[in-house]
Design brief:
Elements lengths: L9 H6 L14 H10 L1 H7 L8 H11 L7 H4 L6 E6 L2 E6 L7 H11 L1 H6 L6 H13 L3 H19 L8 E6 H8 L15 E7 L4 E8 L5 H17 L5 E8 L7 H10 L3 E2 L1 H5 L2 H5 L2
Parallel strand pairs: 5-6, 6-7
Antiparallel strand pairs: 1-2, 3-4, 4-5
Helix pairs in contact: 2-8, 11-12
Amino acid sequence: MGNGLVMRDFTTWLSKFKDSISDYGYYIDFAKVHRNVDVIKVELNILNSLIGSTNIEADFGALVARYPETLKCIPLLIAVRENEIYAIDDDGEFRYNFNKLNRTVAEYKAFMRKTGLFDLLEKHIVNNLVDYVTGVETGLDSNGRKNRGGHLMESLVESYLIKAGFAKGDTYFKEMKIGKIEKKWSIDLSALTNEGKTVKRFDFVVKMENMIYGIETNFYSSRGSKLNETARSYKNIALEAKNIDDFTFMWFTDGKGWNSARHNLEETFDIMEHIYSISDLENGVMGRIFV
């Protein structure tokens, strides 16, 4: 197939995909962890008074009566972000609200006992709830890696757009919905949204004098069903875009995860003129495609 410049071989192209583009901040966002802990640090320190308690049920009841705001910390102690927690056992079904008391104190005590939180506190398994919650937040934040991975690829592509001389808000735009593109430049992109039935947003839009480029970016370091779905979806967008004057669909993707979905990616590669990898970026493709 051609990319408008030279014929390319899919296998050779795929072989240059990278294992990872993770920077040091990808693993844990400690600034966010510390911000989240700081918000409830006072309440956690109040709850610290329960550590090692010899009469924890009574102490907990008295503490909640005097400092009901400490309840909001409880879900995080079992690594849950929601303010409402549902639980069921032989005693019945319960929905606990931790923003405001919606059950009796006795029922909250049952929650603390049945989840193991009273054991954690009275047996002195932890020494300090601020430190403990910092650990919990660190674990929860690791779930954000997938999202950060996507942003890493976006940032990488954006850095090359800037190096190519594009200016944000002038000649390139971030996270732009199709409806906004249509209004701004009076172009009909309804073929890409199933006649307006779906909302589509491009990671970047580049505006040249006679062409609008809708750009998607992603990086997949591991396999998953989403890869096949993404390749098929972008193949359809590319096919529809070919029938739209003054609009071009462009895709920057990479990652060894694609090895598990190479056939779907190859189908898209074969019909898509502007599909590029990090290796293409490193070899100056930005300077050749936007002319």
